[in-house]
Amino acid sequence: MHRVDHWLGVVGWGLLALFSLAAVSAPGVSPHDPTAMHAPMLPPSLSHPLGTNDIGQDILSELLYGARFSLLVGCLAAGFSTVAGVFLGVLAGYYDRLGFVIMRVVDIFLAVPRFPLIVFLAAFLKPGFWTLVLFFTLFGWTKTTRLVRSQILSQRHDGYVEAAVAVGVNDRRILLRHLLPGTLSVALVRFIVEFQHVILAESGLSFLGLGDPTVKSWGSMLRYAFEYPTIFISDVWIRWAAPPGLCITLVVLGLTFVGFSLETRVNPRLNGKRG
Predict the structure, then answer these.
(1) What is the pLDDT of residue 151?
(2) Is residue 75 part of a domain?
(3) pLDDT of residue 173
(4) Does residue 47 form part of some domain?
(5) Which DSSP helix (H) or strand (E) runs through 195?
(6) What CATH number should be reported for the domain holding residue 233?
């Protein structure tokens, strides 16, 4: 792999590991309970490294606990949608009639703008953790299905697959042992891409007030920060609005770097073009 791709992957994995560690260790390292009330709008100090918000909650504690929610929603939704996309893509590529039906459903989902529809549904349904995961899973499987189907269509007529069919190997064994393993590299890249989308979409929903109001997330932190009347005519934005925005940016950047390096591994032909 090209040296630049390698270092991008290292930086990307490092960023993801850093934020994952912060999310897992939030209960132990956060200086305060994120819902505890202190004096409002305290400046940064040893007790409150980023100060407090307008209702007296510690901003650093909110940031750490926000990582738990945002990353967990992103990981679960991306994981579920990728698994569903691979499963349906394998079936669509191997069985022509079933594939025709599945791909017509895919076309319908792709014809509808995803984020506006999620906003519409979130406005009428209870915005909870599992509701958000369901939304992003429901609208996140289609592109994975198309890619996996294309790969199965190109592999099912390979010699080793036709030989397995000729000796009487059942469809289940062919799919699980011969065709499914070849889709895992594509599925991993799609997982990274979908993870990016969910992180940004969840933050956008929370910023619009359509997320879960009972939990801390980076998007909700941005929302309440932007509602503060003097956020941009004082230095409050540096310690309240900037940290969650920076965290979202770094996580998405880390996922981009990881996806870039994985894409090069999945498609070695890109090495020569990028080199």
Answers:
(1) 87
(2) yes
(3) 79
(4) no
(5) helix 184-207
(6) 1.10.3720.10
What is the distance of C-alpha 165 from the center of its chain? 38
Tell whether the torsion through CA atoms of 140, 146, 149 and 150 is positive or negative.
negative
Are residues 261 and 11 in contact, defined by beta-carbon separation less than 8 angstroms?
A: no
- Write down the pLDDT at residue 211: 79
pTM: predicted TM-score of the whole model, two decimal places: 0.86
Question: Residue 55, Cβ neighbours under 10 Å: how many?
Answer: 11
Q: Which residues touch 56 (CB under 8 Å, ≥6 apart)? A: 37, 38, 39, 40, 42
What are the C-alpha distances in Å from 167 to residues 42, 157, 160, 161, 163? 75, 15, 11, 10, 6
The number of folded domains in the chain is 1
Beta bridge partner(s), residue 58: 52
Burial class (CB in 10 A: 0-12, 13-18, 19+), 131: middle
Asked if the structure places residue 42 within a domain, the reply is no
Q: Is residue 257 part of a domain?
A: yes
Handedness of CA 234, 236, 237, 238 (dihedral sign): positive
Specify the pLDDT at position 274.
47
What does the angle CA 246 – CA 252 – CA 253 come to, to the nearest 5 degrees?
Answer: 85
d(CA 64, CA 244): 10
Q: Average pLDDT in the 188-215 region?
A: 88
**In terms of C-beta distances under 8 Å and separation of at least 24 residues, what long-range contacts does 193-197 make, across chains too?**
193/255, 193/259, 194/77, 194/78, 194/81, 194/82, 194/136, 194/140, 194/144, 195/74, 195/75, 195/78, 195/255, 196/252, 196/255, 196/256, 196/259, 197/78, 197/136, 197/140
* DSSP code, position 25: T
Q: Is 189 helix (H, G, I), strand (E, B) or coil?
A: helix
Domain encompassing residue 177: 3-22+52-274
